[in-house]
Specification:
Helices cover 27% and strands 29% of the residues. The protein is of the alpha+beta class. The chain has a 6-stranded antiparallel β-sheet with strand order 3-4-5-8-7-6. α1 packs across α3. The two termini are 35 Å apart. The relative contact order is 0.11.
Length: 233
């Protein structure tokens, strides 16, 4: 039997979040037991557990065994980051999108990438360097490693019709990962790739995505001068 939208865990989570944000449940408030909430919202206890767990992961609730669940005194404000499809980002600005795969090789990753992907030092994996352009002007230079244990189909993929960025977003599910933001000054090769001056400041995004057992891909994205990132909280 299917659930109505009103008592799915997502809908219940939204309602509970509203109770916290409107201070119906104030910071530090001990909320009702899970079983009582499940009865109040006419849902399975497992559904309520999933809703509460999500709010705890957001930093809005603090759950302790035998002590119950309280509204966090200092709730964490989380930033939502999505993996962008560069084609959509460029075309959304009204520009023409192009990409070219500059390097495609099977080789052993450097030690830092081996650690992020959790692969054996002797294994070969797919290394890709790709240049993305907007109106034929360099937009982003991407240095990517793909774990062939996690994505064996990438071994034969030539990325002729989809860029590595878009192909991986479409084809490979992931459960988590991490982002690191930084800035660098352009060296000679990066300056050549992005048509900028040596020493010019550039925005960098390093990202690793993972499945439950290992890393899927590790990528460094270096953007053109003046690039800015927008997100939501």
């Amino acid at each position: 039997m299917s659930q109505s939208r009103s008592n799915t865990w997502q809908a219940i989570q939204d309602t509970l979040r509203d109770r916290i944000q409107t201070r119906d449940w104030a910071p530090g408030h001990l909320i009702p037991h899970e079983a009582d909430l499940a009865q109040e919202y006419d849902c399975a206890r497992s559904t309520m557990n999933r809703a509460l767990r999500g709010l705890a992961e957001e930093g809005l609730l603090e759950r302790k065994r035998k002590a119950g669940t309280r509204v966090a005194l200092n709730p964490v404000r989380q930033v939502r980051l999505e993996i962008p499809i560069i084609r959509k980002e460029i075309e959304g600005s009204g520009s023409t999108f192009r990409y070219i795969v500059l390097t495609r090789e099977l080789t052993r990753p450097p030690p830092d990438v081996q650690a992020r992907l959790q692969v054996d030092p002797e294994e070969q994996h797919l290394h890709l360097e790709t240049l993305y352009t907007a109106n034929h002007t360099p937009y982003m230079f991407e240095n990517r490693w793909v774990n062939l244990n996690a994505v064996p189909q990438a071994r034969e993929e030539l990325f002729a019709t989809l860029s590595p960025n878009e192909w991986l977003v479409r084809e490979v599910p992931f459960v988590g990962g991490d982002f690191t933001f930084s800035a660098i000054t352009a060296d000679a090769r990066t300056a050549e790739m992005l048509s900028c001056d040596i020493g010019q400041g550039l925005f960098v995004l390093d990202r690793t995505t993972r499945d439950p057992t290992c890393g899927i891909t590790s990528v460094r994205m270096i953007f053109h001068p003046g690039y800015s990132l927008h997100t939501k909280i």
